[in-house]
Predict the 3D structure of the following.
Amino acid sequence: MWSHDNTRVQVTLSMRIDFECSGGFFHLPLAYRADTNELAPGLAQELLKLAESSGFFDFQQGDAAPKSPGPPDVISYRLSLSEGGKSKSLSVNDVTAPASLHPLLTRLRELALEQRRQGR
């Protein structure tokens, strides 16, 4: 984050993440839950940046709500983020998710797969 005089300012935000996805060819349900205060600093910053750049808190559910289940290989996502005094949940799928949200969904899916492989 930049201050008004263009000097770098370190801001530590806390975000609660609740992520679930299912579907795809293998219909493997995945979940990832975390608080950025409890993650490694690099991962926490990465997730905060992805959430910010996605514009998550600006989306309206009606803009991206799946109208139907979609093709059999579509992955469905449910994502809830809480940061400061704001909280939001969205349900989307590969087809309806805004393009700016895909990097965050992809990273959270990777983290959920990693967590599953580690048996957590």
Notes: The chain has one domain: 15-114.
